[in-house]
Specification:
This protein is mainly alpha-helical. Helix content is 23%, strand content 2%. Strand 1 and strand 2 form a beta hairpin.
């Protein structure tokens, strides 16, 4: 194996003077490396959207199907200058493209009313009940009473008895 000759001393450059004193570099320092591009399989970052809350209800986020129905209800209410009725909302929801599910429309209408602090019924010609007031129960019709003859015990109808079903044997 052949021996390699020792390396020659480094030649002076513009950054190192020949007398040994330090000199400022003549080239600009390197810029910091750009952040690496996100990996293709990285999960997107979810941004928390602050939504309006009142009366225990949260207003739906912009661009959602729920918000679309709330906007329809708001439009009906603005047009009538009064809260939209359930009938108007259900008709508008059925006419929307694509149409809303009936149960979803009814549920969202209920949440919209609670959000706006509306209680009671919204039917025209009927007034909403003040909060805390319950309607009186209608009087029950009187049942006919059989005449009682002195000395006789009034007949009491027997209560119906459910048939007894034998249990199936267990294996």
């Amino acid at each position: 194996m052949a021996k390699t000759p020792p390396a020659a001393p480094a030649a002076p450059t513009a950054d190192t003077p020949t007398d040994g004193a330090p000199v400022a570099p003549t080239t600009a320092p390197e810029a910091p490396a750009a952040p690496a591009a996100p990996a293709a399989d990285a999960k997107p970052v979810k941004v928390k959207i602050e939504r309006e809350k009142q009366n225990g209800q949260t207003k739906p986020a912009e661009g959602t199907l729920t918000r679309k129905l709330w906007d329809i209800i708001d439009g009906i209410s603005a047009k009538n200058a009064a809260p939209a009725t359930r009938k108007e909302v259900m008709e508008a929801a059925a006419a929307a493209v694509p149409p809303f599910n009936t149960a979803m429309s009814a549920s969202l209408y209920s949440h919209w009313r609670k959000f706006h602090g509306l209680t009671g019924t919204s039917a025209p010609g009927r007034t909403a009940k003040p909060e805390g007031e319950t309607p009186a129960a209608p009087a029950a019709p009187e049942a006919p009473v059989a005449p009682v003859v002195e000395g006789e015990t009034p007949a009491v109808p027997e209560a119906p008895v459910a048939p007894v079903v034998p249990e199936a044997p267990t294996a």
